[in-house]
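INFO batch 0412 | record 1 of 1 | parsing
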Amino acid sequence: MVEETVPAGLDTTTAHPARRYNYWLGGKDHFPADRASGDMIESVHPTVRLSARENRAFLQRSVRFLAEEARIDQFLDIGTGLPTADNTHEVAQRRVPQARVVYVDNDPMVGVHARALLTSTPEGRTRYLEEDLRDPAAILADPQLKETLDLDRPVALVLIAVLHFIEDHTEARDVVRELMAALPSGSYLAASNFTLDYATPAQAAVAREMIAQGRSDAHPRTRAEFAEFFTGLGLIGPGIVPVSEWLPEVPAHQRPSAEQIAIYGAVGRKP
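INFO prediction complete | emitting C-alpha cells
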C-alpha cells in the first residue's frame, strides 16, 4: 500500500490484529509490521492461516444460522476486522434483506474500508463505529448504534476472535456480561477465542513465552474460561467446540483437527 493511502493517525510501525488477520486470510491491507508479526506467529503455529480461514467460516455459518434458523435481523459485530468476502451483513441480508448490522472496530484503516465497502441492501442498514471493545458503555451509548438497532428486540452480539485481545479474563468476562445485559431476551452471543488446550506442553510453553515477551497479543483461554462468556445462555448445537466443528458443512474426515485450529467457538441464546 502506498503512503498516501494511509489514513491519518494510523501507526503502521506496530502490528494490528485486524491487519495481521487480513494477511493470514490472503488480503492486501497490511504493512510490514503486520506481516512480520504474522510470520513470527506462524513459525510457532504453522497452521495459523488455516485457523484464520476456519474461524472466518465459523463466523459465516453462525450468522447464517442466526438469520435463517433463529430469525435474527439485528447484529452487533465488534472486532469486525477488515472487510473481505461474505461479511456479516452480506451473509445476514442474503437471508433476511431487512437485517441491520452495526460494525465496531478500533483501527482507522478498518474504518476507511468499512465505510466504503460495507454497503447495505435497500431494505436493511449498516453502520460502522470506531470504538474499543474494552469500553462497552461507549459502544452502547453511541447515537449511531441507537439509530440502527432497536435494543428492545433481539440482537446477535458477534465477538469473533476479538476477546482474546483482552488479557485479563475477568475484564473480558465483564465486558461480555455488560453487552449482553443491554440486550433483551431472545438475543444471541456468537464468540470465538484462541486456546492452548490442544497444544503439547512444549508448544504451550513457547506460546506463553511469546505472550510474556510481547511478541504475541492473543491470550488463550481454557474451555472452562471460554464457557464463562456463555453463563446463563442456552448453547446452540454442539455447544463449545473447535470452530471447525460447529455445525460443520463438510464430512469429519475432511475437517482439520482441533490441534490445527486451536480456537473455540460457540453460539448461545439469552433466555
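INFO post-check: The mean pLDDT is 90.
INFO record closed
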